[in-house]
Amino acid sequence: MDSKRTNRRELLKGGAALAGGLAALGQTPASAQEHDHSTMAIGGAPNDYPMILGSKEEIEYGHRSKYVTSVRIPHPVGRDSPDEFGKVMHVASPLQDSVGVVTPSSLHYVATTRGSYMPDVDPKKHTLTIHGSVDRALTFTMDDLKRLPSVTRLQFIECAGNRHNGRQKNVQESHGMTSCAEWTGVLLSTLLKECGLKGTATWFVAEGAEEVKGASSMPIAKAMDDCVIAYGMNGEAIRPQNGFPLRLCVPGFEGIFNTKYLRRIKVTDRYYMNYNDYGHLDRDPTEAALAFQIGPKSVITKPSGGMQLSGRGYYEISGLAWSGGGAIRTVEVSTDGGKKWNRAEIKATPQRMAHTRFGYMWNWDGNETEILSRCTDEIGQQQPTREQVAKYWNVPFDRNYRVPGLDNSVMPWRVARDGSVTNGLA
Amino acid sequence: MGSLRLVTIALLLVGSSALAQTYGVGRATTQEELSRLDISIGPTGEELPLGRGTAKEGAVLFRQKGCVGCHGAAGAGGGPAPALQSKESPEVPIWERERILPLRAPFATTVWDFIHRAMPLGNEGTLKPDEVYSLTAYLLFLNKVIKEDEVLDKQSLPKVKMPIGNDYARLPVWKHGTPRLQGYPY
Q1: Do residue A88 and residue A228 come from a single domain?
Q2: Which residues of chain A have a CB within 8 Å of the CB of B3?
Q3: What CATH number is associated with residue A350?
């Protein structure tokens, strides 16, 4: 063993030697391996695959396999993103390739609207100031925040524009504006206790450091309940697209409230009617309520639009469920167009306001059908079909009926006899 | 902070539990910092700076500052950014008219706030208070919300009567563990 190790070290000394060594490991012509086993430097069995060069980049941060090509796409389909200013950027996450519940940071959906693009924030200079209806206004550096007790939580964030319709080809187009990451930071309630809330504190405004300084009003009850001032995402610093170095996480609220590049929180005695708030205005109180906390929602990610079943037999139907009302309690799957609903297996303990992975083993008989999923959350809200929503509002129903507020309706995928899977709303 | 800590300790000694949970992390924000950072203009307008402006001055600025390039001449649209002047008559009910900030916003303070924090493109935050008052007045005038010679300042801006009045839904009171809409099962 000792002499072998020495030989390897010598082999690895120079770049040229390294390249030569790799050639010996994997790229030697088959004939040489077959006929000259006695002279092979290392081992006798040929390797199945060529080796990946241990480059500086590969050592320092790593890459995924070149065979894994899953990427984000502009959203919605057909719109330039980034736009002509290079500012509005909406990109959808490839849910069809997702496994488990964590979205890799590099594949997390991104939505920047109303002119927001990425500021290049220096974390050494960045501070968070909390002021307004508090006993004492305080400014926190990033180091200050990291001294305080931390929490780590899974949380989905979903864009209000995550609506499905018959024109979309696959689940990335129909549902890709939701993602789930593990966020680490300080509870906003911890910081508000440091500042001391005044009796008049009923709302707060969170503001980012991007060029439009996007600001939203939120109820102080939510701040004290579960909002997190996050500096970590999936085990590392938040990426610039997701709000580096500081993001307000507002579990279960529509995406825009999850303020990126957070620099200031103003505690107020009223709804402040910021530009973002004005953007939420609605005439109908029911519609306004439906555009705040995200309803129970699920979707089958596999098999889904654009996929191909290879023949009759068993397939695990896999998907994601989530709700702004709390943890997912149950998920049901139908493989006969919604006539019979079967309890799906939930893959891990469901977390509050987090994507939950479900699975259901399906023995496809080769006939045309529709597969669907629906979920129920811990407070009893159940994901509706589009028909149920239309019936509730007592309005005529057709396949392109628009669900009021955020669209949390059931998504059907159609399976044809040839095994092709397409949008059931088309 | 030193004196704050002493106060905390003193209160702890007399048995206050409200302050017992604090860690003494973070420093007091100075008044100078607050006046620079606090760009939120609420509906009362209490944060508005001194200054004044009219639609006539705003019309000049709208061309000088390059607003026309994106929002079109007199905010008529046609460029890459939203139109800022309604094409509909004031007789048409507000919810049937276009969603234009200086028309649909319930408070003129929102218009002032957004121009001040977010415009013009590439030079955000460079407009002086007089310029923001003027541009706000111009956009409100274009949408027939105020008259051309009306002077907007700290006192008059929050009093501008916006066409929407009270005709918009307030968000429901949010509580932990409640459905997003009472009585709605979905």
Answers
A1: yes
A2: none
A3: 2.60.40.650
CATH, domain range B52-159: 1.10.760.10
Q: What total of structural domains would you count in chain A? A: 3
Mean pLDDT throughout A277-294? 92
> What string of H, E and C letters represents the secondary structure of A220-232?
HHHHHHCCEEEEE
Q: Which of residues 126-165 of B touch A (CB under 8 A)?
A: none
Q: Which amino acid is at A14?
A: G
pTM here? 0.89
Interface predicted TM-score (ipTM) of this complex, two decimals: 0.90
Identify whether residues A234 and A90 lie together within a single domain: yes
Instruction: Write out the H or E segment, with its range, that includes residue A157.
Output: strand A150-158
Contacts of B175 in chain A (CB under 8 A): 221
Question: Of A211 and A11, which is predicted with more confidence?
Answer: A211
* Angle of the A15-22 helix axis to the A2-12 helix axis, nearest 10: 120
- pLDDT tens for residues B14-25? 444 444 468 999
CA-based nearest residue to B165, from B84, B106, B101, B99 = B106
Chain A positions touching B163 (Cβ under 8 A) are: none
Those residues whose C-beta lies under 8 Å from the C-beta of residue A63, and which sit 6 or more positions away, are A57
Over 70: is that where the pLDDT of A1 sits? no
Assign residue A181 the CATH number of its domain: 3.90.420.10
Q: Which domain range does residue A243 map to?
A: 73-281
Q: Is residue A289 part of a domain?
A: no
Q: How far is B134 from chain A (nearest CA, A)?
A: 19
Q: What is the pLDDT of residues A70-105, one digit of tens each?
A: 999 999 888 888 887 777 789 999 999 999 999 999
Instruction: From A304, A238, A270, select the one nearest A97 (Cα to Cα).
Output: A304
Q: Are residues A36 and A141 in the same domain?
A: no
**The two three-digit tokens of residue A176, written as one number:** 């890709």
A48 and A140 part of one domain: no
* Alpha-carbon distance values, B96 to A41, A275, B104 (Å): 80, 20, 10
Q: What does DSSP assign to residue A400?
A: T
Do residues B43 and A215 make contact, with C-beta atoms less than 8 angstroms apart?
no
